[in-house]
Amino acid sequence: MRTRHYITIFLLLETFFLQAQTRTDTVNYSLNARINPGFGEYAPFLSSANQFDRHSIQPNSLSLWGTIHKKMDDAHFDYGYGAELDANVSKSESRFFPGELYVEGKAYFLKGTLGMKQRIYGNQDPELSSGGMIFSRNSRPFPGISIESNDYIDVPFTKGYVEVKGGITHGWFTDSTVTTNTLLHHKYAYIRLGGSFPVNINFGLQHVCQWAGTSPNYGKSPVNWSNFKRIFFGKSGDSSSPGTERYNALGNHIISKNLGVDVNLRSVNVSLYWQNIYEDGPVFAMYKTYNVEDGLWGVSVKLKNFQPLNRFVLEYMSTTDQSGPWHDLDGVIYGGTDNYYNNGVYPNGWTFYGMTVGNPWLTSPKYNENGSVSVFNNKVRLYYAAGMGRIRDIDYKATFAYSDNWGSPSYTYKSCKGQFSYQLEASKPLPSWKNTKVSIGISGDRGKMYGDNFALLFGISYSGNFSY
Q: Which one in 146, 230, 323, 367 has a CA-CA gap of 20 to 30 Å to 458?
């Protein structure tokens, strides 16, 4: 029903914009297909992770998707829209769903979006990262309404040396959740210092909360202005809230503070970034947080004049501390065993359609063999490397990852499960077929977490544009 409403709004707004538009706009479109023949219990982990749920985790599957986008330009007033339709077919499942469906508009430094739009939040590398601590490219986007700044904007009277950005989103969990009619609250704020200097420093805060809905075990949490203010500021619920949320914060809150340093030189750009994660208040400085050992540390390097390897990323992630081994002991609340991405009132946790919304190495429920909708594996250490470049007219991307997996505070594995994953992809234009690219790759896993899997990746894509 909600999808039908979005389509109706999309068509009405598009009609309005077409009538009002006086300049020529360009629309980009693409048609894509990929098949992954191979062996193993699952498709290799990297062949489906961090791709907006576009590909199935089942082996020997066919993926088809088409896209259409009109992007906003640099004018003070503009609009844009986008849509993507995805389909997967394998021996054990078939899926057809919208991967994107949105309209957006901007006025000077503000922009608004209605619908489902694929985007990246956080200061991690947007193309090669394993994924931010709260948002990655692993799940399809939430439907919602957002208002945010148009990237970083100058603070008046600072001559561009101080910039800020921020935004707020109200969204909906439209998948089949145990606690029904669940809502999403997301807000973020960043500051960047340095301007035209070669070294810039950025610091920001990401805050998400699942709230409202009806739980089969805890009852109903009403949607009203009073409860919205509580989840906005991370306060406890009132007498109308589920019992566990009267002494805890109302809703399922996850916070990540981001700290980064960007060094911009003539031939190379280097970005260092750190993201922490915590689910308990109060909000301390990053180095004072209870679980300071947990988070994502990364370095991203862009080599401007070396096409064979023009970008690479190295990352380390740990989520094993979780504020300590005790939540409470002898009547004292320690706030440990955070059980990242999980929550008692919201058993689906920080997932959407079975895929982890945050870093995908905190394993998506789709991999649960017992049918559970929760994140069973969230105590992880990850070592990750990825790079991309061009050799003649061939573009390539290579990714390597090793993880140690211990389960979760509530379900610890008998022994650590190590897993190595790799993927190498290359694509090349077809000279005889205009606007057409073919791709080929290999992807595989070896270990005890996802098993031993291997697949060849064959793809073809056609892209084009038209103006009106």
A: 367
